[in-house]
Amino acid sequence: MVNIVLPIDFTETADVLIAGAVKFAKENRGKIFLIHVAPSDIGFAIGDMGFQYFPEVEQNEINEELKQLDRMQQQITSQGVECEHLLRQGIARDIILEYAAEKNASYIVMGSHGRSGIYDVFVGSLTKDLTKSSPVPVLVIPCHK
């Protein structure tokens, strides 16, 4: 069986990315390992008293993201592809590479929004970074409209 790590970020292009990953998994008898990496600073806010941490905000956000992952997992399994999911907090690139190693991934499937140039300078591109540093092949699915 081919193990496919599918990082997901809940953007408007997630359905396109999932459809491409499901097609790839079906063609290769694959299992999808869905992962969302949440930032470590979800519960922090800047106010009059400086940085403040609100654990209830963080927990609510994580609970909502877990519900979204559950729905995506059901969407994938309803199409006949095995799937499990995980949510972790931290630096996306590092967490995804660690998870790929844990799951003995054959592929990481990422989306490309079609942005380049100045956008990458200021925001960066996780897909580009992973294609440069991943020890396993990265399949890039175009998700731009």
From TrEMBL:
Xref: InterPro entries: Rossmann-like_a/b/a_fold, Universal_stress_UspA, UspA
Domain UspA: 3-142
Domain of life of the organism encoding this protein: Bacteria
Family recorded in the similarity comment: Belongs to the universal stress protein A family.
Protein name according to UniProt: Universal stress protein
Gene source species: Marnyiella aurantia
